[in-house]
Amino acid sequence: MNLNTNLKYGLFFLGGAALGAIGAVAVSRGKLDLKPFAAEVISRGLDAKEALLAKTDCVREGMEDVVAEARAVSAQRKAAKAAEEAEA
After folding, report:
1. Fewer beta carbons within 10 angstroms: which end of the chain, N or C?
2. What distance in Å separates the CA atoms of residue 28 and residue 31, rounded to the nearest whole number?
3. CA–CA gap between residue 66 and residue 75 (Å, rounded)
4. pTM beyond 0.70, yes or no
5. How many C-alpha atoms does 34 have within 13 Å on its Cβ side?
């Protein structure tokens, strides 16, 4: 990395820290009400979580069906192999 890249990243860091400090001061003095925005963001996150869990449940049920079918096929194969060995 050259000096210009390091300087650029350093300025981005300082700008972000300054913006964060200004935001923290504004929130602590009550001039910036973030509760409605935060509630909306959190509610959307909860909705996404519920949708993801519902999709996960569908996938899990499908995989359980596949595993049950695979166990049945395996049992049939073992039974057929045992029958062949018994005949021999």
Report:
1. C
2. 8
3. 14
4. no
5. 11
The two tokens of residue 11 are 């300025």
Q: pLDDT digit of tens for each residue in the chain (88 aa)?
A: 566 787 888 888 888 898 888 877 777 776 667 778 778 889 999 999 999 999 998 889 999 999 999 999 999 999 999 888 888 6
50, two tokens? 């519920």
Calpha distance 19→78 (Å, rounded): 68
Residue 3 is encoded by which pair of tokens?
């000096």
Type of residue at 63: M
How far from 57 is each of 5, 64, 70, CA to CA, in Å? 47, 10, 20
DSSP H helices, 1-88, are: 3-28, 35-87
Cα–Cα dist 51/40, whole Å: 17
